[in-house]
Task: structure prediction
Amino acid sequence: MECWAERKPWSEHVRYTYKFVKECLGEDVAVHAMRHHSSQYYPSEWHPKDLIEKIICLADNFASGADRREEPERGAPLPSPPIDLTHVLSIDHVRNRLEAPDLAYTYQEVLRGLKPIAGGFEEKHRKTYFEIFDFLDQNSRLRLVPADTRSPINDVSLWDHMKLTAAFATCIYLSGWMGDDPENYRFALLSGDADRISRFINEALRLPDLRARSNLIKRATDAARDFLRDLIGPECVLFAAGGSILALCPLNMLQKALEGVKKSFEGESGGRVTITVSHIEVGGDEVRGDFGSLWEKAQRNLRVEKSKRILVRQISLPEGSETCDVCKAKVWSYEDKERILPFDASPRPERLCDECWTLREKEKGVWLDDIKGESDFVACIKADGDNIGAFMSGVGFKQSGKAGTPSRISTLSDLLHKTCEEEFVRIIGEFKGGIIYAGGDDLLAFVPGEHALEAAKKVYLKFKGEMAGKCTMSAGVAFFHYELPVYIGIESANSLLSKAKSDGKDRIALAIIGGTGITQSELKDINSMEWPDLDTLLEIVDFMSKANVASSQVRRIVEAASKSPVKAEALIQYSVGREIIDWSYGERLLSYLNSGLLVKAFTVYNLFRKRD
Result:
């Protein structure tokens, strides 16, 4: 960064590397770090000399070869700020623009943060390394500096390039040095994915049960990630969130890694959720080729392994014993006297086994009746990104004229993670709602019914904006009374999301669940709408809320519209002519009638309108 800020030639960056690392870690490590290039553009005294330096140089070649697949456009002979970090999904979308002072400030900020940490490196190598890695990993500024200033390969951050280089260096070191030729090396791409997460989470009867199960998956994923961090290094974990994990691993440590991921995940989950792990072997030349295809191959292999599982739910209970109301698998041992079964003909307190009771106790304090608004209705929002899988597999990148490189996939994963786990959480919090799950490109949340559509719209706009408009989002929103079982809202929202997806994606489907529930066939008959139509619907609801017209008059028109738009138009004109409704109000109703959203908007308005 300092090299670019001072507009020095490209090759000078190794000298600045030496200067920076020496201040943090001393002379010996600084020399190792400096000698990471062997081409003619660098003086021979700067070329790798010992084994460590050769490993770093080869690892940098692996990372650069895998990441910089396109031929960079020729530009000025010297880096010239402002320097742009573009979006991995779009050449034209600039995520961050850095002037020389920005680069210099970021450099100094990182240096100030590292120096106190790095001081203990001589005495405690491992502990200090982990602290250095975590500091850099959590530095948001470093993620917004490109690793290369030339378009179109200026869409990967300096942090992602360093992390990938470190991952290859670790695997080469742990596997053993086999010369300078990349074809001599083979690596493992390890994948893991939790089994039947939705079934486990959706067993829940109450909001705390949902949150507890979702958090259990998160803790189990973190346990698997931490195992790999300790075994091979944090840089080798390419992705870990939401029950899924992807890592680069040396072949000689693969079996231990596979067994450890499974054991640590299932140990943290208490065996209530299992994980399937698999791997593929990849050659050095393949890594430098199309990494997106390798990632897709790894996911395919994982799906094959998951299909081999034989799922037998083992329930061994004494004769005459009664099971837990939540998991239905173990004998109940606790009664939650504050919570009565919401659907039992003979009401009684809910009965929970030890494990379900422990999970519920961890999430005490947030219930549906804490979220409900003035209407006593809550809404379940289920949202999912459209076509993200195509980009993660590399296909989407190719369609955009880019290669699916490791750091692009890592950058996209990181961007999705930040959007869901930070921005979505913030948005749902603004609307006084509660997040059950936000990760990958998925969202499951509950919000007060009155705010649900505005919240869903804001989530959509944030996601689309963060994805540079290249990926959209579909959503299902189910409104239901807070005293109904929570799973009714979840199942309905899932069905509505599926409907929005099947209708063409980039859409939203909504339904209001009455006291008697709703059937799957009724949900399938609901028409989804495009997101701009939601703006119109909200506009109609707002218009009805503010207009000084008796709701009975609006109801007559809406009932007519549900049967025949032509008759509804005639009724509006008649009402205007008889001065039952104002002329301007009638004109607006006619325009809304033509939108086809009048009936749906009135249903939403009527649910939340304030009654005398």
Observations:
- The first strand starts at residue 83 and ends at 87.
